[in-house]
Design goal:
Length: 176
Amino acid sequence: MNMPRDDGIAMTWFVKVEGRVYGPYTGAQMRAFVGEGRVAPHSSVSDNRESGFASATDIPQLKAWLDEARKAPHEKRPLPADARTANFIVAADLHADHRAAFEAALPEFGEVERITPGVWILRGAASAAHLRNELSHLLGREDRLLVVDASRDRSAWFNLGRDADERIRDLWGRRD
């Protein structure tokens, strides 16, 4: 796909998720989304709301940003304001190709204990969203991640799909 480079010239990007198109986003916003893990290599992206969607890795500028993020995914970025020491449950359904890198990265965030395949307890200074954003760089198209902050009753997830997203938000948001 031959899309124009984002040279600081006003350019807009669109992201398609499960048939819904989001945007327009500026180049700076897209670069931030890549850094946060919100745009992954398999994300469907275009410079046109109506057509031309391709995987982010097929677009040279986005591929460069993704490569930057992947090379230093755990470079210590500033922790969010609510990043106090907490207890987390990290559950991940990982393809075999991504498992080793994911498991190797977990101790960078605190003390880790594997409970069962794909489930860990982690104690460290972070927030659920921060852990999700940092770890999502290591995930592929089919991988899924759920991070639960058991100390503060918060959660964050990646790639679970729209239905799961709605069910989690509904269940987690209930005030009984």
